[in-house]
Design a protein that fits this description.
By secondary structure, the protein is of the alpha/beta class. The chain is built from nine helices and ten strands. The two termini are about 25 Å apart.
Length: about 270
């Protein structure tokens, strides 16, 4: 799986911060589908393990939480941290869900993926594989972005630049920055029916507090953007200076973040 955001210490820190921001939206969806003690869970594209923690808190010591990710170092670090925090029911499997079937045994009561389909070449194929890991009576849950929503009020040129480079790089890499909006259609194609339910979460915040997120995501995607020709090193440096200035000069401008769209279907 090609991850256009890169694999650096800074990106891992950004992923952890992002997970904290969306924790409430994800926890609410897990509760909506009735994740119960003793359940068997699979977190596809588990990253730093923050959603695995939410699962472990709900399934308890009698449950099982398996994370799978192509980034073995990140996944193993996550499971070690979870074990140190008392969540010994968590385990990790290294594997690429686009190229193989990395899960040793299926039959999970919950199969979950957050911000994973956005990064794969064939979302339907991956979603179909996730559906196959879902046990009868179990539930498939996915959350993904619609990044078209990103905007500022009043408008700011620096936000336009973020959109140009960030969304342009996703398009150049063959990824759909509006994938979250397509989840019902993707579920229908992969599972044979549309979701049982959907949920949309958003965040509208001051530029002062939104600027660090915008700067971090732009910084993470810059190497891919340079490689794909959507941004130059000079443009990237200028953006970082401009976004830092906007946080100081226009702190009360409102910034709308990407929408996090969730969908779920019981098997």
């Amino acid at each position: 799986m090609t991850y256009v955001m890169g694999r650096t210490a800074a990106e891992y820190a950004r992923l952890r911060a992002q997970a904290k921001i969306w924790e409430g939206a994800t926890a609410g969806l897990l509760d909506t589908v009735g994740l119960a003690p003793g359940a068997r869970c699979l977190d596809v594209g588990c990253g730093p393990g923050e959603t695995m923690r939410l699962m472990a808190e709900r399934v308890g010591p009698a449950g099982r939480v398996v994370g799978v990710d192509v980034d073995g170092e990140l996944g193993r670090t996550a499971v070690t941290a979870l074990a140190d925090a008392g969540h010994g029911q968590c385990e990790f499997v290294e594997g690429d869900v686009e190229r193989a079937d990395p899960v040793p045994d299926g039959g999970f009561d919950l199969v979950f993926g957050r911000l994973i389909l956005l990064h794969v070449a064939d979302p339907v194929a991956v979603l179909r594989r996730m559906w196959g890991w879902t046990a009868p009576g179990g539930v498939l849950v996915v959350q993904d972005y619609d990044m078209e929503a990103v905007a500022a009020n009043p408008p700011l040129p620096v936000i336009d630049e973020w959109r140009r480079v960030f969304l342009g790089t996703f398009a150049a890499a063959g990824r759909d920055h509006r994938l979250g909006l397509r989840l019902p259609a993707l579920f229908a194609a992969a599972t044979g029916a549309r979701p049982d339910g959907t949920a949309v979460a958003g965040r509208l915040d001051r530029m002062e507090t939104s600027a660090p997120m915008l700067a971090a995501t732009y910084r993470s995607i810059t190497p891919a953007g340079i490689s794909l020709g959507t941004v130059t090193p000079e443009e990237a440096d200028r953006f970082q200076a401009d976004i830092a200035r906007a946080a100081v000069d226009q702190p009360d401008h409102q910034a709308l973040w990407p929408l996090l769209i969730g969908a779920h279907r019981r098997r």
